[in-house]
Design goal:
Length: 383
């Protein structure tokens, strides 16, 4: 008997992305004529600056329409190395930067390069919904570890086996907006060094740290050679649909890692990279303004939510997320708010068991929409 046609287990077994599903739900409800107030979107809601659009347009008109270098445009890689060095104090050469279609593909590139079948990867939770599935796509097993308020290095150590090859760490954290402290980063680097692990460090919200230090593993002498850094233009510049990000790799690894790029995407479109170069050139002009808006909205929303009985909410030090604790079943509450009050949120348990009892809210909608959503929440509470 002939085999049935089927979708490979590695894809069919993946859990759908809860955040993408919520975005699609909101899109469908709006298309059906409902006015949904969204506190759910991970898209910063910033229109791409016209100078960035013009740069892409100019590149296309100038004929930048062909295959380009696999690792990315030389000028963009140089600008990214400088950007990374300026921000984290790390030391990157242009040669260590790989331009990718978004941060998600940078993550997949790193994991494809270091995770084989049977390998295990430690993933702190609550954490971004794609870490586990990306590890699975590489044939590995994500080992999910609950650690809501700080990295639990002892729990990581206990979870190690002889198959553990890496740990994925995100700062500022999606969904909580927390910035990891220096002591956590130092402990992480020491643990990774001691046990021959790679660190995959996802910093796609690093440009939205409101104040103070932003500790990174790659800025430490021992962390730099063992850390893959995932970053993106999406959240920083309002460029989610452009699909532009990068992977900063340990010394000498760009060449072997580039084989995955060669045999998958080949390269990121040249016009998109020209847009990225322009974005970095106008960074100082635009980013402080975006950051200030998100900080103000987060602080105002946190204060209002905190005054609602049954909700406890801190204003985090970065990003555009809030992760309030709610005295309710988070999945039931999110469903009720959407179905009965037209407010979209994401239940905290979508980010792992450690997130249950919380909602992930974003302050990316226009001020008036956030205000109206908060007014409804103030009226109805967690019922
Ligand atoms: N990492 C984290 C923590 C995220 O929240 C996201 C997007 O939501 C990404 C990576 C990927 O973003 P992109 O692929 O748009 O760069």
């Amino acid at each position: 008997m002939a085999r049935e046609r089927s979708i490979a287990h590695r894809v069919s077994s993946l859990r759908p992305s809860a955040t993408v599903e919520m975005t699609e739900k909101v899109r469908a409800a709006r298309a059906a004529g409902r006015r949904i107030l969204s506190l759910a979107s991970g898209d910063p809601g910033i229109p791409t600056d016209p100078r960035i659009i013009e740069a892409a347009h100019g590149a296309l008109k100038a004929g930048n329409t062909r295959y380009g270098p696999v690792l990315g445009d030389a000028h963009l890689r140089q600008a990214l190395a400088l950007h990374e060095n300026r921000r984290s104090g790390a030391s990157y050469e242009d040669a260590d930067i790989i331009v990718t279609p978004g941060g998600k593909f940078a993550l997949l590139t790193a994991l494809m390069s270091i995770v084989g079948p049977e390998c295990e990867v430690l993933v702190p939770e609550p954490g971004w919904v794609s870490y586990g599935p990306c590890v699975q796509l590489c044939g590995g097993t994500p080992v999910l570890l609950p650690m809501l308020d700080q990295l639990d290095l002892a729990a990581m150590e206990t979870a190690l086996t002889d198959r553990t090859v890496a740990v994925i760490v995100n700062s500022p954290v999606n969904p909580t907006g927390r910035v990891l402290q220096r002591s956590e980063i130092d402990g992480l680097v020491a643990l990774a060094e001691r046990h021959n692990l790679w660190i995959v460090f996802d910093q796609v919200y690093s440009d939205l740290v409101h104040a103070g230090a932003f500790p990174t593993p790659q800025a430490t002498a021992k962390g730099r050679p063992i850390t893959f850094v995932v970053d993106s233009f999406s959240k920083t510049f309002g460029m989610t649909g452009w699909r532009l990000g990068y992977l900063a790799v340990p010394p000498q690894l760009a060449k072997p890692v580039s084989r995955f790029i060669q045999h998958s995407i080949y390269c990121v479109p040249g016009a998109v990279q020209a847009a990225g170069l322009k974005a970095l050139q106008i960074y100082d002009d635009v980013i402080p303004g975006y950051r200030a808006v998100f900080r103000r909205r987060q602080q105002e929303a946190a204060a209002r939510l905190n005054a609602v009985p049954g909700i406890e909410c801190k204003a985090p030090g970065a990003s555009f997320y809030l992760f309030p604790h709610v005295d309710a079943d988070d999945r039931a509450l999110a469903a009720r708010w959407l179905d009965e009050h037209d407010i979209a949120t994401v239940p905290g348990s979508a980010f792992g068991k450690a997130g249950s009892g919380h909602l992930r809210l974003t302050v990316t909608a226009p001020d008036a929409e956030i205000d109206e959503a908060l007014r409804r929440i103030e009226t109805m509470g967690v019922r």
